[in-house]
Write a sequence for this structure.
């Protein structure tokens, strides 16, 4: 089912260059995202991951290069965090309705699906980090987007929490065939759930299936050889689940 | 009970309280209090310039307030922290404004009226200008409410929803400048920020959603304006500061009551 639209680029990035002042943050980046595929961008701090995401949504204008979005592309965005403190009262219910024209029932169903139906009336400032991430995700998929963008979405979650969150994202992809582009430094967990991994450090160092990137010398130089071991360990734990889904969507890549 | 000038004063006070409520919420949420203060203080410079050029005080104050907002945006993120920059700009524009006014020796000017308001002297023309500004601000706030909320929560989320946070911020600043300009006559440049922040901060105690906070702030603001005018009439005190005093007393009272309520429930 994921293969049907694989020839269609949702996002096509050609020779993207982004500067902040005199400093070049991104140079010569080429990247495509196809319908229904999970792409993870990994890279150290300051590698331009966030700039890439900001350029895609139009928050940063590139110095050079082109970003082409599919006509009427619907983007669901899951931010890293929200800038609000206790001065802004906001129930989960009201937050879900922001910029979404949906009724109460749809809203409730979305939260139920996300595994957090009991916090409908809670103040956002009072729910846990894990619940918060699920609310952000539930809100992002309410409008049935073609692609989900996730900005370090698991920051602040522990490793089992992150694993659970990514499991949920896989479910979303399976149910809606929505493409997913996430940036992360959370290498161990992300790697095995992705169809394609892009290793970014100002430019695209290497890319490919999780396994091929993990064995790439450039990747090892950047993140150290130790990472590969952790990755293997994780894949072993979830062997039955992720290996299977990876094979199924391989033709996309 | 109310004389004609009192009716005009109440209507002017209620108008400013209505515009200040949704705007004050954003000033609190986005931590723009100092920014608002810089705009308000710049308005006294605008007053001086308009008296000098003999143009409408409202237009002059609005223009200089917007100019100040533009200068702040231009200079922000350069060499100084935002609060330092705003401190420099706010107080120097206030000082320059006061010095400018002193040059206008030909005209007799009641400086206090511009610093602390002169709500009892609101004319029918003033009232029309105030309500025009108030309605404009309320329309702008209603139109951009959700968009501003989203970009307050997360700018990238706003961009991804197809919004333009930069443009919405300009609309917010414009609304702030209009409110400052129309409120000069009511509470004066030194107390405008109080009318924005105190009702919103009091409303936070009762509110569970952003909308309810704005509505409760409007109610508290209107009651403060009305109560303040009554109190000023009874005690023969300056009206503008009395309105702010009533708002401040309600802020303290609500906080104490809320504290007691929470203690009892535990």
């Amino acid at each position: 089912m994921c293969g049907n639209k694989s020839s269609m680029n949702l996002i096509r990035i050609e020779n993207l260059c982004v500067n902040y002042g005199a400093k070049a943050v991104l140079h010569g980046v080429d990247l495509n995202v196809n319908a229904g595929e999970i792409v993870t961008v990994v890279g150290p701090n300051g590698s331009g991951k966030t700039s890439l995401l900001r350029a895609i949504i139009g928050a940063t204008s590139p110095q050079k290069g082109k970003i082409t979005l599919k006509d009427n592309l619907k983007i669901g965005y899951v931010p890293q965090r929200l800038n609000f403190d206790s001065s802004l009262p906001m129930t989960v219910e009201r937050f879900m309705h922001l910029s979404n024209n949906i009724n109460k029932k749809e809203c409730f169903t979305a939260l139920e699906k996300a595994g957090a139906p009991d916090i409908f009336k809670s103040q956002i400032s009072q729910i846990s980090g894990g619940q918060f991430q699920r609310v952000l995700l539930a809100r992002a998929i309410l409008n049935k987007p073609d692609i989900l963008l996730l900005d370090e979405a698991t920051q602040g979650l522990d490793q089992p929490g992150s694993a659970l969150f990514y499991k949920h994202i896989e479910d979303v992809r399976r149910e809606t065939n929505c493409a997913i582009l996430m940036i992360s430094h959370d290498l161990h967990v992300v790697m095995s759930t992705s169809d394609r991994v892009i290793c970014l450090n100002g430019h695209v160092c290497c890319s490919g299936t999780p396994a091929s990137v993990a064995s790439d010398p450039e990747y090892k130089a950047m993140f150290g050889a130790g990472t590969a071991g952790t990755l293997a360990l994780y894949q072993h734990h979830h062997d039955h689940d992720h290996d299977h889904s990876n094979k199924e969507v391989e033709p996309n890549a | 009970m109310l004389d004609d000038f009192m009716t005009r004063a109440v209507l002017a006070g209620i108008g400013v309280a209505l515009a200040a409520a949704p705007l004050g919420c954003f000033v609190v949420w986005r931590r723009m209090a100092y920014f608002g203060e810089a705009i308000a203080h710049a308005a006294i410079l605008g007053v001086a310039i308009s008296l000098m050029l003999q143009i409408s005080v409202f237009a002059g104050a609005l223009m200089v307030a917007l100019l100040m907002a533009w200068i702040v945006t231009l200079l922000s993120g350069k060499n100084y922290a935002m609060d330092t920059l705003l401190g420099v700009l706010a107080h120097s524009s206030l000082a320059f404004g006061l010095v400018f006014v002193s040059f206008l020796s030909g005209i007799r000017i009641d400086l206090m009226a511009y610093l602390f308001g002169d709500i009892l002297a609101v004319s029918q023309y003033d009232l029309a200008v105030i309500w025009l500004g108030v309605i404009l601000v309320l329309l702008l706030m209603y139109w951009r409410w959700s968009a501003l909320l989203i970009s307050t929560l997360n700018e990238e989320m706003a961009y991804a929803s197809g919004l333009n946070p930069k443009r919405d911020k300009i609309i917010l600043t414009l609304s702030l400048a209009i409110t400052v300009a129309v409120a000069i006559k009511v509470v004066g440049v030194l107390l405008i920020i109080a009318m924005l922040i105190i009702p919103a901060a009091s409303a936070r105690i009762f509110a569970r959603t952003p909308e309810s906070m704005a509505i409760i702030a409007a109610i508290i603001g209107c009651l403060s304006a009305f109560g303040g005018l009554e109190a000023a009439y009874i005690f023969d005190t300056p009206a503008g500061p009395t309105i702010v005093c009533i708002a401040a007393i309600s802020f303290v009272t609500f906080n104490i009551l809320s504290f007691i309520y929470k203690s009892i429930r535990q």
